[in-house]
C-alpha cells in the first residue's frame, strides 16, 4: 500500500538533501580574490605576455597609411595563448559600435582561431601595455569573434567616435579558458 506524502514535506526533504550535498560557502577573502582580473592575480605572466604583444608589428607605418580595399580597417596586434602555446597574429575590426556605454565589436583574425572548447577571454591592452579590461568573446566562424561589453565612463566617451576603419587604440590578448596559470 502506497502512502501519500504531502508535497510540502517532499520539497523540504529535497531541500535538506541539497543542503547536505552542497559544498561549504567560500570565505569572503576567497570571493574577493576570485573577482580580481587575471592580470592582478598573475602579474608576472601578464607582464611577459604584454611585452610580447607590444613587440608584434602588423605592418610598417607607411604600409598602413591606407588599409587595403579588400580588408576592413587597420590590423590590430593579437597574441593568442592556448595552454602553453602562443601565436602572434593580427585582427581586422569588421564592426565597432560604442553606444550608451556598451562596446559591440566584431573582428576577423588573420590566422586560424584558437581551438578552445570553453571559450576565449579577450584582454584589451593600451599602447602603454597596461590592461584596460577583459571580456568573453563568442566565436562566430573559423576566424571571427564577437563581443559585447560595458565600458567604464571615460573609456566609453573616448571610444564613441571610433569607426571600424580607424586605427584602434588597443592591442588584443586572446586567452583560452584552458590556458595554464
Explain how this protein is built.
Strands 1-2-3-6-5-4-7 form a 7-stranded mixed β-barrel. It has one domain (36-176). It contains 5 helices and 7 strands, in the order ααααββββββαβ. The model is unreliable at 60-65 (pLDDT under 50). Helix content is 25%, strand content 33%. The protein is elongated and about 75 Å long. It starts with 6 loop residues before the first helix and ends in a 5-residue tail after the last strand. Strand 4 and strand 5 form a beta hairpin. With 181 residues, the protein is of the alpha+beta class.
Structural domain tally: 1
Strand content: 25-35%
Gyration radius (Cα, Å) is 22 Å
- Per DSSP E runs of 2 or more residues, the count of β-strands stands at 7
Assign a percent range to the helix content. Answer: 25-40%
**General form:** elongated
Amino acid at each position: 500500500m502506497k502512502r501519500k506524502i504531502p508535497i510540502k514535506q517532499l520539497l523540504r526533504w529535497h531541500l535538506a538533501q541539497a543542503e547536505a550535498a552542497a559544498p561549504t560557502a567560500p570565505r569572503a577573502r576567497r570571493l574577493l580574490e576570485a573577482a580580481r582580473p587575471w592580470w592582478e592575480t598573475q602579474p608576472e605572466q601578464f607582464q611577459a605576455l604584454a611585452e610580447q604583444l607590444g613587440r608584434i608589428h602588423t605592418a610598417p607605418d607607411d604600409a598602413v597609411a591606407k588599409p587595403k580595399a579588400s580588408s576592413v580597417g587597420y590590423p590590430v596586434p593579437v597574441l593568442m595563448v592556448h595552454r602553453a602555446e602562443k601565436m602572434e597574429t593580427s585582427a581586422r575590426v569588421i564592426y565597432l559600435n560604442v553606444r550608451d556605454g556598451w562596446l559591440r565589436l566584431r573582428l576577423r583574425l588573420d590566422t586560424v582561431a584558437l581551438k578552445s572548447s570553453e571559450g576565449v577571454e579577450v584582454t584589451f591592452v593600451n599602447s602603454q601595455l597596461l590592461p584596460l579590461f577583459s571580456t568573453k568573446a563568442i566565436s562566430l566562424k573559423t576566424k571571427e569573434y564577437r563581443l559585447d561589453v560595458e565600458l567604464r565612463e571615460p573609456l566609453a566617451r573616448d571610444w564613441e567616435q571610433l569607426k571600424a576603419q580607424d586605427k584602434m587604440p588597443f592591442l588584443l590578448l586572446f586567452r583560452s579558458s584552458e590556458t595554464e596559470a
